[in-house]
Amino acid sequence: MNAQEREHRNHVNDVFSTRITIYRNGDLNFYGKKLVVNRKHIRTFNSFLDEVTRDTQAKVAVRSIRTPNHGTIVANLDRIENGGVYVAVGLEKFKHLPYKEIPTHDNLSLRHHLKPPAKPIPHNRIYASARYQKLAVSEPLCNRIILVYRNGDDLYPGKKLLLDKRLLENMDTLLQYITDKIKLTTGAVRSLHTLDGSVIKETSQLETGVKYVAVGYQKHFVKGIYLNESEPFNVSIKKIHHKALKLQEK
After folding, report:
1. With helix as H, strand as E and coil as C, how does 53-110 read?
2. What percent of the chain has pLDDT over 70?
3. What's the mean pLDDT in 140-157?
4. Nearest-5° angle of CA 109, CA 110, CA 111?
5. Spatial CA neighbour of 90 closest among 64, 72, 68
6. What residue ranges define each of the domains in the chain, with the CATH number in brackets?
7. Which of 55, 91, 119, 221 is disulfide-compatible with 172, CB 3.0–4.6 A?
């Protein structure tokens, strides 16, 4: 390859590639990650979100890309600007922080100026336990016990999970918890489905004693015969409270 051909090839790559810096939403300790968005390989915005999820090592799948100053949503690849700075956001709300001042690997000297002061840990273990017991009695359905399978894995027996009120606050928190427990080979859990493939969009849709399937990014729900799928899965409310209280006391 002569010099003219190399120059032409580099020019073509520059046309199809966009270089950006991406930050994780609300994380002052995450260095800005420099990414090259190659339009030859990343042709859809969903593929781009999957790439950002993987490269930023997000525990929960990235659902949107925002501008750092005002949190404006960037909805398609054509709006990604070369040299731009963006924030990767999951299901949680966008958090306004000085993202552009967070150091990258090339500039770590600013990190100690941005790190927020440590908050004192309140010693309210006993009071929290008492409050939890009161809620458990007054709201017997605030906790759930479910069984979760790995998508397409017909040898995985399923993981029984206790979901307390904190985990049921929003889907982002729930999916992160399931990611830590299920440990998909594809990384973060992006969605939760019923055995017939229906997507769980709100935590209020979850029912105790029901089985679900965890699906990772770049994957579609696989409707198959999961291990012990036909066996009943019954859990008493008393057992839910007992396990919840044990977790609270740890």
Report:
1. HHHCCCCCCCCEEECCCCCCEECCHHHCCCCCEEEEECCCCCCCCCHHHCCECCCCCC
2. 68
3. 80
4. 95
5. 64
6. 7-114 (3.10.20.230), 139-216 (3.10.20.230)
7. 91
